[in-house]
Amino acid sequence: MSAFDFEAAEVGLPPFVNPKENGTSVLLVSAMFPLAKSKHTKKEYGIWLGRFLGAMTTDVYMYTTPDLADTIRSIRGKLPITIDTTYSSPFEVPPLQGLEEAYVKMNDMDDEKWHHSPGLYAVWNAKPFLLESAVHTLAKQGKTYDYAFWNDGGSFRRNHRYSHWPDPDRVEQVYEEASRLTHQKKEDLLFFPVFQLPDEKFKDWKETMGPIANSVQLSEGSFFGGSTSTIEWFAKIFYAYHDHYISRGLFVGIDQDLFNSLFLLFPERMFTVWMNDPIAPAHKGIIPSPSLIPSLERGYLGECGAEWFYYQFWLADQQTRDMMREIWVKEERWRKTGWWSERKLCRLTRAMSMSDFLKRAFSEDWKPPTRHVHIPDL
Length: 378
Fold this sequence. Notes:
With about 375 residues, this protein is α/β, with parallel strands linked by helices. The protein has a domain at about 25-275: Spore Coat Polysaccharide Biosynthesis Protein SpsA, Chain A (Alpha-Beta Complex). About 35% of the residues lie in helices and about 10% in strands. The chain has 12 helices and 8 strands. An 8-stranded mixed sheet has the order 3-2-1-4-6-5-7-8, sandwiched between helices. Strand 1, helix 2 and strand 2 form a beta-alpha-beta unit. The longest helix has 23 residues, at about 120-140.
């Protein structure tokens, strides 16, 4: 066991073991469509794409436009990648075809329309389809994977040491743990990281109320996935509710709003990791950062970088976790505070079933709301 993992062992987390000797195959799926208006600059996306495509040795399936194909290929270099230029715009993706006008109307309903656009909504809402389509396209070529995950192209925002990521053995391990927690088969489980508990007022939320605005910062839409069958299932429920809410004139421009609603409707088939769980064994003895530290790096599990991307550390192999721990604990900002020596190395926390996560917010007797929306072929 690594010296850096001793704290996790002391608080009762299972030791790391290789759960599958013959290996687990993992695919990452992403996309890059140029937009006239985006939340970030082209320069930022260029840097972030380099930290993703230029570093991950995992197989990647990337959607982009014909004009950007050579750029993507250049960033990726000799690492394995499939570049799909089928769609020149996210509105060409089958579930979103013909919805431009509806999405323009939604933009007027958006409190953040100053940096959101109809095209950005389409990119976000294309994710479940693109993930499913990538898996099926490769399967037709004889390439099958145990797990496939959507990964936002701009999700690696700082320098890192991730390469063979997510680590296949680690993925298998967390799915084994989730299967025990949920009493579901591994192939029936969808992984989705979460940021914080939903407000207690959503305890009585019903399907008819529409998407749950992500002002509560519940779901993290930058990474999700599972087996082929679960990816198919998720695409079906996502677009069934997407279409239903659009038909009622409701706002569905932000994928996380719809993800939030699906958590409450289908929690039995999902599991998560919640970094800031105050009663998790791994949190024992940790003193969160003072207010002068940026709010998204409060250190609930020690120095783990940005909380939003904790799942990257969580799904890495032990050696890589050790390297990331050293990077974070040696950051210059701790020396500026004068108390940096008190900081703890980043800890590995447990998986949670989505049902247990939501019951923590609402109550132990909370039940998922009744579902009425028809889901084709389900």
